[in-house]
Write a structure and sequence with these properties.
This protein has 311 residues and is an alpha/beta fold. The chain has two domains: 206 residues, Alpha-Beta Barrel (TIM Barrel); 63 residues, no CATH class. 43% of the residues lie in helices and 14% in strands. The chain contains twelve helices and ten strands. Helix 5 packs antiparallel against helix 7, helix 6 packs across helix 8 and helix 11 packs parallel to helix 12.
Length: 311
């Protein structure tokens, strides 16, 4: 079975982060045409049967969408409904429960509006001035990304080197130096009503932590809270239980064996990573570390991007 992973899916829009890496909605439709030709796209019932050990077609595939984005309601849901397809949507809860934008989208918005070299210079100046004790032992999640080196370094510092508890305050200072257009939470993320409409349309809803932090960088108690609270909060919003999870960022450096144990203890029956690969029979013996394929690595999945250039 192949799980295909999507994040931003959009047409022309001013919605932040405008210009950041995304799959154009027309390319999304073309990729769905391809997937429908080449794969058996599973229904909710077939996917659940697969998790319980029942055999599915060798060409089976499931569609997954991360980050609980407004794109998923406006661009993805209508297309899935039109085709009678099912998808899994993994939703971080802080925007829904606390009305806060996540650091990951704040970073994307800055990168989409200002040259990476200018952002990196200001960030390094701030970190020197604040005397933040950086975590220098953290592996970069961006070494293999096809982005300019300054952007990779900027994202690595904020997502891995700066202590998690300090990231929001550092971003506050960056946004003061690089003001962006006013961004409302509802401009970026699903609203509670839209989330419930996705569920009422038969789509699967899974947890994606509360704040979309790198769980491996958090103490055990903080990891447990991120995992358990996200499940509880989504269940409260939906009025139904949630038992699927996706690790934020999802690469092998973003979770540990302890993280996986906490996911199991929280009652999740399956969890997705972003580790590249297909789900074979062996993977189902470890259903809390399921691999996925990024849509960009499949036909018609090329990203659209227009980031500002430096001087």
């Amino acid at each position: 079975m192949r799980a295909v992973m999507y994040h931003y899916v959009r047409g022309e829009t001013d919605r932040p982060p405008a210009g950041y890496y995304h799959l154009d909605v027309d390319d999304f439709r073309t990729q769905l045409d391809y997937l429908e030709r080449e794969h058996t796209l599973l229904s909710a019932e077939q996917f659940r049967a697969c998790l319980h050990g029942e055999r599915v077609p060798d060409d089976a595939a499931v569609l997954t969408f991360d980050d609980g984005l407004a794109d998923h309601y406006e661009c993805v849901l209508p297309e899935l409904r039109r085709r009678g397809l099912w998808g899994l949507f993994f939703v971080p809860t802080a925007p829904l429960v606390f009305g806060r934008r996540l650091p990951v989208q704040r970073i994307h918005t800055l990168v989409s509006e200002y040259p990476g070299s200018e952002l990196l210079d200001e960030l390094e100046r701030l970190l020197d001035g604040e005397d933040v004790a950086l975590r220098t032992d953290r592996e970069s999640m961006y070494a293999d990304r096809d982005t300019e080196s300054d952007v990779r370094r900027f994202k690595h510092l904020l997502n891995r080197a700066v202590p998690t508890r300090a990231v929001s305050s550092v971003l506050d200072r960056l946004e003061a130096a690089f003001p962006a257009a006013d961004v409302a939470v509802d401009d970026v993320y699903l609203t509670p009503g839209q989330l419930r409409e996705l569920a009422d349309a038969g789509m699967g809803i899974g947890a994606h932590s509360v704040t979309h932090s790198v769980l491996a960088d958090l103490p055990r108690a903080a990891q447990r809270w991120e995992i358990q609270a996200s499940r509880r909060q989504l269940a409260d919003l939906l009025g139904r239980p949630v038992d699927l999870f996706a690790y934020p960022y999802g690469g092998p450096e973003s979770y540990t064996a302890e993280t996986v144990r906490l996911v199991r203890e929280a009652g999740f029956s399956a969890a997705f990573t972003t580790v590249d690969g297909d789900i074979g029979d062996g993977a189902l013996t470890e259903p809390t570390t399921l691999p996925r394929r990024d849509c960009a690595d499949l036909p018609h999945g090329d990203s659209t991007v227009t980031l500002p250039a430096g001087d």
